[in-house]
Amino acid sequence: MREDQGRVSREFCRIYRLPGNLDQTAISCSLSADGLLTLCCPKVRTGDDSNQQDRPIPVTRDEKFGNQPEIKADP
């Protein structure tokens, strides 16, 4: 959608199937200033896969540029 001030607004929806061994209550998502979407999905520590459900994940906007993604490993 183009506005009078020359700004452009776009929206999309994408659905992903995640593995069952993730803690779905702790999933986080961020969007960098240059459009890099990062999804963090910690694994379940107990081996319990009963928390599987469909749910939206809120996206946090970040003012930093994301061309250098940070990779975090579970301890």
Fold and architecture overview:
The chain has 75 residues and is mainly β. The chain has a domain at 24-61. 0% of the residues lie in helices and 15% in strands. It has no helices and three strands. It has a three-stranded mixed sheet with strand order 2-1-3, with no helix packed on it.
- List the total number of helices: 0
- Using only CA atoms, what is the Rg? 16 Å
Shape: elongated
Major β-sheet annotation: 3 strands, mixed
Kindly state the percentage of residues in helix. Answer: under 10%
Overall pLDDT, averaged?
75
Determine the strand fraction and express it as a percent band.
5-15%
Structural class: mainly beta
According to DSSP, the number of beta strands is 3
Strand order of the largest sheet: 2-1-3
Alpha-carbon distance between the two ends: 44 Å
H and E string: EEE
Spans of at least 5 consecutive residues whose pLDDT stays below 50 are: none
Provide a brief overview of the structure.
This protein is mainly β and 75 residues long. The protein is built from no helices and 3 strands. The chain has a 3-stranded mixed β-sheet with strand order 2-1-3, with no helix packed on it.
